[in-house]
């Protein structure tokens, strides 16, 4: 052991760069300790002790050469080992010893100068042979590598099973450990297997001569005795059994003994530059491997023998490399063994060392990588733990649970939580105390508590009770919309009288772009309420309104609770957009019913969200819904709302909106002031008349936006030295900004021919003028012919409208029979009725009177009065029934320049409700029976 430690320094030196060139390593002889990392160092000690022992009882043949002192101290032993032992041993090794027992080994050949431990477990004959040899003081064996690595047999059948070149080894130690015979072999030189020795020879050899017996008994000495000392009992007791085994084995021809001869090298001179360079390269490579793999370095410490100067002994250097490398396969190593030329062997050794280096580099980089990752994680963990402790020490942060609960308590302090909610919160807080912070239940509980404490229990924004302020705000933002503004002022008045904040559900319905959504924001401002908007258009999942149950992964409360969390008050204004487009009942429930629960004043004081599972009071929320078609709002929902009609605008109104609001909005967003851009009234009028004829002002807003954008580009493109002059957009240059007009003429017909009458229609986009064209397919109607006429209808009409055509025909026939009893026109004529804009689907009964008029006009071949429009459902007896959308229809009639309009008598009130500016300059006649209309049709 000690000699190994002492040599460590030298070995390192040997691998230092300086060594390669100048420093020589003069190592003392000693036994190397190796069994390819199996042979324990203890062998080293045992071996050395035995060979230098001066005890006469153990002395044997070498006894006289050993130091005389009894049990020398270890230091002295070591020095003996280093200086003398190998010499003693070498002196006793015969130069020529051809017949040796054969030990076949697997995987790694044993190279000269190194030690290997070999166990014989099964083969009794071999054991017996070895024992005999040791007794005869011929403790030598030939160690050969098996050709087949998977061959587990201890004794081969023929020399073809082993490689021909092996090593001549000296048995340093033999131990009998139960059935196992352990041999420690020290290899001396290469030998070549010549031929196997016959069984009979072996038998002869196993019977020692008298002389041998004598000398054997006398000279059992070191090995023989040592073996008996190690395990005398086993050896003695198992002898009988082994003899039986041996008899069994002897029946088969096996390779126990072989005749060998010493292997001849082709030496290489270390004076030769090539040899020297290769050796230096090998040492250099080994040094690099040691730098990469400390384990390799340790192995060298164990292997490198001080007596062998690697830099002067190329043979030893090659064998050292072959013994050291782990990555080479048995064939490569055996090649090293068999190579006669030492120079070639050096090249092979260099190759093996380089290969080992590559593997070591790879291993090193992998280890480094893994190490780095582990270290980083470890470092992070340590720092985090330290941070936690530091924060705790400074009182900055308590542990997770305490922090969460503290934060929740802090939030709850500012709220007036009702008793039923507080109960749930307390229960949940108790529950969380017992939960593991990393468990999923913990995060669910934590999330739940977070939401429970986020509801603004008992928090209200201060409601505006000043009517003038509210009015000013509403007027400033929106032109017109009288009904809506009045309704809001009434609402404020009621709140003032009640001295309490209340809720309500209003529904603003009308065509797009009339300001339904934008006024809701102004209302919120006027009332001093927080504003929250969500759209239910296309919504199909109830959970969006009522929330998910907490058990689902990623569960969330519904929109209303999210709204309360966001606005932080219990009395916000909530705008629910597009209620007429809410999805129907389906797989995820019926959202309309959920919305009903939310909006029903009877129920919403205790609104129950699935996630929160605690009733929340929504009775103070002002809900404003918007819809384009009020008829499509689900009935029960419509029932609970107060409907406010926001119909389209007239050209004058649009002009006012554009001048007072839209232009100003654009000025704000583009920063173009009045000195840079102005739009003349005339330009705006053309814009309204020829570009944007829809009911709302969204399109108009887009056009104004376009003008501002184009102007901004023009101004930005001007050179800096020519400061911008004012751009004026007028009737002449309007096309430069917004392109060619979309509508050239106001109407389809300037003067209507017989059979063409203007009706008034209502669509979700507002009112429009709708012509009904009726023509005779066959010009000359032969009233005497007995063939009946026909009626063809086109123009993408719905079922109701098609039925309306048939009703109108009957009514027209009735009227014509009164007016012109002799006429057979409707019976014989082939009539085609068409409603233009065939791509637009049309349906509804309100074109009844127009259809009758158109048919009569054709039948009488008289054009109806010009600038005339009409609307009304017709009954079979000629009654004119009321229709909807009067405001939109009147606006549309004015837009196309009509001066006379026929309306059903029952729509009188609707018309009366219209503002004066819409009604003025319009001659409206209310009719109950169609005849009343017919009287004036051709005036
Ligand atoms: P809707 O919700 O009815 O479809 P919006 O409220 O979105 O329409 O209005 C579209 C644009 O028209 C908004 O920029 C709005 O300011 C403007 N607008 C509509 N009506 C008016 C109005 N009466 N006065 C001022 N601006 C209006």
> Largest beta sheet: what is the strand line-up?
18-19-17-16-20-23-24
Tell me the structural class.
alpha/beta
Helical segment count: 36
Low-confidence stretches: 1-85, 208-250
The number of E-state strands comes to 24
Helical amount: 40-55%
Family: Belongs to the peptidase S16 family.
GO molecular function: ATP binding; ATP hydrolysis activity; ATP-dependent peptidase activity; serine-type endopeptidase activity; single-stranded DNA binding
Pfam families: AAA (PF00004), Lon_C (PF05362), Lon_lid (PF22667), LON_substr_bdg (PF02190)
Keywords: ATP-binding, DNA-binding, Hydrolase, Mitochondrion, Nucleotide-binding, Protease, Serine protease
Describe the structure.
The structure is a single chain. It is built from 36 helices and 24 strands. The protein is 47% helix and 15% strand. By secondary structure, the protein is α/β, with parallel strands linked by helices. The radius of gyration is 56 Å and the shape is elongated. The strands form six sheets. A seven-stranded mixed β-sheet has the order 18-19-17-16-20-23-24. Helix 14 runs antiparallel to helix 15 and helix 17 (419-433) runs antiparallel to helix 18 (440-452). The structure holds adenosine-5'-diphosphate. The site of adenosine-5'-diphosphate has 18 residues, from helix 21, helix 26 and helix 28. Belongs to the peptidase S16 family.
List the keywords.
about 950 residues; alpha/beta; seven-stranded mixed sheet; five-stranded mixed beta barrel; 36 helices; about 45% helix; about 15% strand; elongated; disordered N terminus; binds adenosine-5'-diphosphate
């Amino acid at each position: 052991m000690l000699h190994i430690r002492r040599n460590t320094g030298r070995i390192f030196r040997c691998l230092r760069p300086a060594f390669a060139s100048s420093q020589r390593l003069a190592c003392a002889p000693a036994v190397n300790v190796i069994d390819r990392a199996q042979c324990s160092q203890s062998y080293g000690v045992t071996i050395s002790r035995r060979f230098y022992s001066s005890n006469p009882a153990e002395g044997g043949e070498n006894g006289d050469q050993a130091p005389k002192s009894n049990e020398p101290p270890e230091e002295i032993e070591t020095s003996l080992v280093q200086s003398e032992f190998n010499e003693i041993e070498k002196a006793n090794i015969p130069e020529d010893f051809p017949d040796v027992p054969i030990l076949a080994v697997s995987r790694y050949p044993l190279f000269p100068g190194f030690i290997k431990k070999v166990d014989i477990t099964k083969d009794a004959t071999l054991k017996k042979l070895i024992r005999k040899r040791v007794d005869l003081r011929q403790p030598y064996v030939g160690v050969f590598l098996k050709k087949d690595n998977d061959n587990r047999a201890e004794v081969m059948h023929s020399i073809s099973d082993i490689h021909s070149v092996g090593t001549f080894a000296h048995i340093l130690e033999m131990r009998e450990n139960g059935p196992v015979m352990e041999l420690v072999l020290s290899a001396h030189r290469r030998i070549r297997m010549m031929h196997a020795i016959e069984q009979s020879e072996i038998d002869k050899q196993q019977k020692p001569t008298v002389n041998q017996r004598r000398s054997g008994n006398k000279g059992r000495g070191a090995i023989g005795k040592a073996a008996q000392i190690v395990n005398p009992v086993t050896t003695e007791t198992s002898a009988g059994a082994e003899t039986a085994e041996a008899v069994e084995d002897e029946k088969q021809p096996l390779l126990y003994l072989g005749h060998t001869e010493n292997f001849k090298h082709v030496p290489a001179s270390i004076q030769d530059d090539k040899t020297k360079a290769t050796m230096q390269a090998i040492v250099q490579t080994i040094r690099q491997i040691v730098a990469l793999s400390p384990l390799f370095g340790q192995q060298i410490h164990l292997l490198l023998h001080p007596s062998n100067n690697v830099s002067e002994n190329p043979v030893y250097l090659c064998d050292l490399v072959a013994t050291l490398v782990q990555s080479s396969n048995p064939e490569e190593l055996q090649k090293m063994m068999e190579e006669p030329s030492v120079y070639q062997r050096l090249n092979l050794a260099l190759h093996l060392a380089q290969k080992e280096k590559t593997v070591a580099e790879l291993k090193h980089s992998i280890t480094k990588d893994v190490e780095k990752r582990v270290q980083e994680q470890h470092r992070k963990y340590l720092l985090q733990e330290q941070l936690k402790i530091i924060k705790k020490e400074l009182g900055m942060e308590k542990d997770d649970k305490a922090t969460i609960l503290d934060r929740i308590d802090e939030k709850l302090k500012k709220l007036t939580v009702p008793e039923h909610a507080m109960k749930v919160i307390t229960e949940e807080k108790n529950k969380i105390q017992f939960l593991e912070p990393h468990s999923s239940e913990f995060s669910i509980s934590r999330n739940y508590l977070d939401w429970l404490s986020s509801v603004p229990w008992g928090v209200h924004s201060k409601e505006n009770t000043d009517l003038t302020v509210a009015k000013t705000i509403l007027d400033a933002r929106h032109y017109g919309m009288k009904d809506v503004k009045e309704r809001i002022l009434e609402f404020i008045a009621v709140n003032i009288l009640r001295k309490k904040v209340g809720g309500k559900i209003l529904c603003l319905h009308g065509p797009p772009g009339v300001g339904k959504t934008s006024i809701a924001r102004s209302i919120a401002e006027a009332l001093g309420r927080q504003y929250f908007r969500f759209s239910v258009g296309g919504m199909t999942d109830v959970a969006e309104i009522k929330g998910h149950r907490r058990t689902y992964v990623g569960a969330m409360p519904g929109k209303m609770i999210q709204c309360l969390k966001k606005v932080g008050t219990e009395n916000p204004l909530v705008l629910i957009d597009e209620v007429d487009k809410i999805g129907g009942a389906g797989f995820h429930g019926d959202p309309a019913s959920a919305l009903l629960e939310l909006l029903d004043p009877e129920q919403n004081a205790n609104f129950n969200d699935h996630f929160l599972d605690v009733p929340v009071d929504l009775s103070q929320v002002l809900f404003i819904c918007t819809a384009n078609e009020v008829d499509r709002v689900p009935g029960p929902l419509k029932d609970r709302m107060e409907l406010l009609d926001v119909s389209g605008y007239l050209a004058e109104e649009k002009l006012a909106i554009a001048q007072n609001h839209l232009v100003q909005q654009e000025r704000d967003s583009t920063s173009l002031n009045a000195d840079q851009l102005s739009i003349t009234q005339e330009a705006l009028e053309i814009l309204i008349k020829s570009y944007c004829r829809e009911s709302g002002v969204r399109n108009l807003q887009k056009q104004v936006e376009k003008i501002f954008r184009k102007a901004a580009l023009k101004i930005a493109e001007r050179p800096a030295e020519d400061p911008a002059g004012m751009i004026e957009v007028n009737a002449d240059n309007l096309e430069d900004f917004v392109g060619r007009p979309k509508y050239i003429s106001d109407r389809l017909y300037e003067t209507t021919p017989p059979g063409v009458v203007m009706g008034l229609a209502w669509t979700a986009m507002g009112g429009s003028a709708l012509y009904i064209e009726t023509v005779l397919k066959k010009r000359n109607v032969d009233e005497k012919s007995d063939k009946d006429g026909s009626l063809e209808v086109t123009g993408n009409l719905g079922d109701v409208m098609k039925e309306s055509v048939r009703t109108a025909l009957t009514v027209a026939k009735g009227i014509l029979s009164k007016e012109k009893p002799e006429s057979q026109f409707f019976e014989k004529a082939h009539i085609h009725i068409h409603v233009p804009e065939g791509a637009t689907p049309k349906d509804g009964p309100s074109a009844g009177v127009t259809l009758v008029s158109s048919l009569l006009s054709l039948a009488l071949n008289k054009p109806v009065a010009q600038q005339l429009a009409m609307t009304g459902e017709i009954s079979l007896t000629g009654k004119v029934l009321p229709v909807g959308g009067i405001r939109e229809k009147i606006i549309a009639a004015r837009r196309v320049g009509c001066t006379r309009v026929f309306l059903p008598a029952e729509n009188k009130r609707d018309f009366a409700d219209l503002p004066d500016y819409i009604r003025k300059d319009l001659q409206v006649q209310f009719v109950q029976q169609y005849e009343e209309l017919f009287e004036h049709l051709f005036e």
